[in-house]
Description:
32% of the residues lie in helices and 20% in strands. By secondary structure, the chain is of the alpha+beta class. Helix 3 (166-180) packs antiparallel against helix 4 and helix 8 (263-279) packs across helix 10.
Amino acid sequence: MTEALRVGPFPLVGQAGGPCTATDTASRLDDWRDLLRSHFVALDVVDPDLDGPFDSRVRSTLLGTVSVAEVSAPPQSAVRTRRLSRDGDAYLQIGLLTSGRAVVEQDGREAELVPGRFVLYETDRPFAWHLQDRWKLLVLTWPRHLVDISPDRSRSVTARPLGTDRLGALVGRMLAETAQCPPQHVDGRRLAAELAAFVTTMLGASDDDWPHTRAAADLRRKVARYIAEHIEDPALDVESIARAHYISVRGLHRCFAGAELTVGALIRKLRLAHARRRLADPRDRHLSVTDIAVACGFGDLPTFSHAFKQEYGETPTSYRRRSGGDPALTVYGALLPASPPPSPHPPRRARPGSGAARRPTSTGTIPAAAAVLPGAPRRTRAGAPHRPRSA
């Protein structure tokens, strides 16, 4: 991560003395873009309201290593595109809405803000502000490398409404007072560090709370889909899943704490189900059991065979020898309630001409392994068990 050389419109000198203030106004769209770049980062201004006067204003104050700014302008969207985010300006920012309405997007999430609510976002990745009505916003900007919060943790809380609980409301009021009435006779560097510490404390406290909300169930569903879509990736593990969902490994485990399966157990179950389907697929008859095991993410045949027998009560070779087709499975049932034990009886052979559909396995499609999510409908066995005739 590149260390910022400025914060807001000021050189980053880490002043210990009094604050510095810069105020700028714009009445034209081009000037407004330049002003935003100067006080914050480069942004594309999209769909601005040009029907009335485009009166826009920013007042920024430097307090040690944090810039606190008041911003007001007509309705618009301010977008940090992927191209713009590569310019090296890496900041952690908090935006607190004081009037109007806003929606903030980053890292696949969006937060709806009303006055008094605030949001955290980072400038080294794309984000967008969609601002409605005549709005007013307070923005606090720290160089990212000066804030003691891990990248995984900060990614997990971007674009989430903050200030909804008691601690968040307290921190929000403190940030608002600092931005609206910057103190004059303080050690700016110490104040900047204290403000950052309050923010990280608030985020640390919320780490224990958010996995128990509806967001945790939504994340578990997303993780299950992600595993199913990357089931043949040998690098698929808890760490890679956490990175892909912008959450710490600890946070991911906490999210699954109340579920029937852990993350590791879910990966194993989905891999075994995918391997079982491939063992029964005539298109894979040219592959050995070892080939299929490796393709489904298992390091060696003994490990795969042991796990397969534990899950299904027979060896992969035995199952492949007697299987006549893939069970009809439904993808993405209810997530992670208790799973019924596997049937001790072998499934019926598929009748010729039954037209049982097979799911494609080409890159970009969702493998049928996802069907093992507990709660998905299972085809039940009817009648007496079918026994293969002796040769």
